[in-house]
Specification:
Shape: globular
Strand content: 35-45%
Distance between the termini: 42 Å
Radius of gyration: 17 Å
Helix content: 25-40%
Structural class: alpha+beta
Number of domains: 2
Length: 153
């Protein structure tokens, strides 16, 4: 099973774990750090998550992963907050965080640029709209390689 397939399966399992809670799955990463594999699950809820939230989801997800056993070999499960620079992964994230400063990186250049920082205006017809230095920039959703909230100073 590929890394991407493992991440997608864990997202599906984790979404079932949080379905009856006020928490959401933001992202899942399965990465090798040194000689150890790490499965990171990022969660959030309105008002943010705390250590008890992470511990609760960690325990519940660990049980499910032990039952299903989708990952060969050993790994470390980590459940945490997505942090201040939360990734924008779902279409609803682009609506929910409208008005916030974001960083967007594209697969291919748009107006000869691949990196953008501006105020997120939202998502309409699969196009993310940003306001950058007073100018409107439209970025097709399928061209976005990575997007995240930016820290405002």
């Amino acid at each position: 099973m590929s890394r991407n397939q493992i991440e997608q399966l864990v997202i599906s399992l984790a979404q079932k774990v949080v379905a009856s809670t006020d928490k959401e799955i933001v992202d899942v990463e399965y990465v090798k750090e040194g000689s150890q594999w790490v499965l990171r699950v990022y969660i959030d809820k309105p008002g943010g998550v705390d250590l008890d939230d992470c511990s609760e989801i960690n325990d519940a997800l660990n049980e499910v992963l032990d039952e299903v056993d989708p990952i060969p070999g050993s790994y470390t499960l980590e459940v945490s907050s997505p942090g201040l620079e939360r990734p924008l992964k779902k279409e609803q994230d682009y609506v929910r965080f409208a008005g916030r400063l974001v960083n967007v990186r594209t697969y291919s250049p748009i107006n000869s640029k691949k990196e953008f920082e501006g105020i997120l205006l939202g998502l309409e017809d699969n196009v993310v709209r940003l306001k950058i230095n007073g100018e409107l920039v439209d970025i097709p959703l399928e061209k976005i390689a990575k997007a995240r909230l930016a820290i405002e100073f």
